[in-house]
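PROTEIN SPECIFICATION:
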Amino acid sequence: MQQSITNTSLFRILSTVSNFLIALLLSRFLGPKVKGEATIMLTTITFLVFFCSFVGGQALVYLVPRFRVERLIIPAYIWTLLVAGIAYILIRHFHIFTWRRSLNICLLSALASASNIHGAVLLAKREIRRYNIVLLLPVVLTLIGLIIHIRILHQQDIYAYLYPLYLAYAVSAVLSFFYCYRFISWRPSAEVFDDLDSSFKYGLGYQIFELLQLLLFRLYFYLLYHIQGVSDLGLFSIGVSMLEVAWILGRSVSVIHYSDFSNHDNERLAVQQTLRYLKVVFLASALVLFVIGILPVGFYSFFFGQSFMYVKYQVKWLYPGILMYNLMLVIQSIYLSRAAYGRLIFAQLLALISSIALCYTLIPRYYYSGASAAASVGFTICGILMLAIFMKDYGIAISGLLIDREDVLFINNTLKSLLRLRKDG
């Protein structure tokens, strides 16, 4: 499992670098307005994929080891098409986007959802390498396509980003389907919907948690968009993306632990590994945030353009929240693997309520700083509360959070594993 976490972290670093280059190209060659348009469209796609995931999301990681795969993914395909169709009707009815933009968003959401379904199956089957490829491929293909459209085709509008996104999502959906093909029995059967109730039952709990997490991550984007406009959102999103690099290891640990813990019932081992990675992730994230914090403003102006020079100051209040939310990312895996969503939902809901209240208070007055502070308070509340719940549930003393000799040996072995992997590569 340690090797899987290392590999997943490396893939996520590559994905983050690719996303960084995409943001660089959008901001430097297409400007803050197009960057803002891309941000709001991608955020909307993320929300639609969330609704598609009620029957085919990450809850499949828990369900696949317990049910036949075809009884889970065929209803998930049908549900995805229904959600995409209904979303198009609603978006057009409320005139949120033009008909063409609405159609693009809904089609891209359906393709992204298909990849999400296949990725969850691969993760449940512990096909970690293929899962990571499916995770990385859309970002790399989007980057390559964006370079071609900007530098060769000289396209300067939002479609320089949308066309590569179509190709990336389509290729990812098809490739991930072939990766999953051997796990699926395609024989016609009247029983294909027999486990639909389980999909809804566990999918609903997971998606409520996922929705609250998504709102906590991105609601302040929409508030900034409506209060300050698309260009300012484009500026702000660059700074947020930089800071979220500190979540790479935490997210990798969460994904691998969720998959591994869902396939075994050794609770004692799960608690031990969660506690150990909690310490490692916290220290690593603090180091990453320190490095980002000392980057000069010239770094942002050099890579993204003069308009982005002072982005680091716009997100300064996010630092403590980004650090503390790593606690949630690591701890959530053990509760997700047991389908114990109640505590996670409670922590997210309390954090979200606090964040929303502060957003409406601070954003109109302090703009960027207000958004950063409001989100940071929500992240911090969630991380600390979930840590307290975890310690209470499993009888962990405060002294258990201190670094001990075994933790040092573990970190040393992890670093050796990483160096060995680089040497082999």
Notes: The chain is about 80% helix and 0% strand. The mean pLDDT is 83. Residues 2-424 form one domain.
